[in-house]
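Appendix B. One record, verbatim.
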Amino acid sequence: MWLKDGGDSLMLQRLLGYTALIMTNRHCQAVGCYDAIESHKRYSPLDRLHG
């Protein structure tokens, strides 16, 4: 949410207490997976097919 709302990844790193930006990036990638799943649920054409 921090990055989506325009937050800076370096500041997020500092707030989380990480010494390396790679750890912040790993967590952001993991969250990105959830965003992709939610987008799929919302926009998938398969959900609009009626059989």
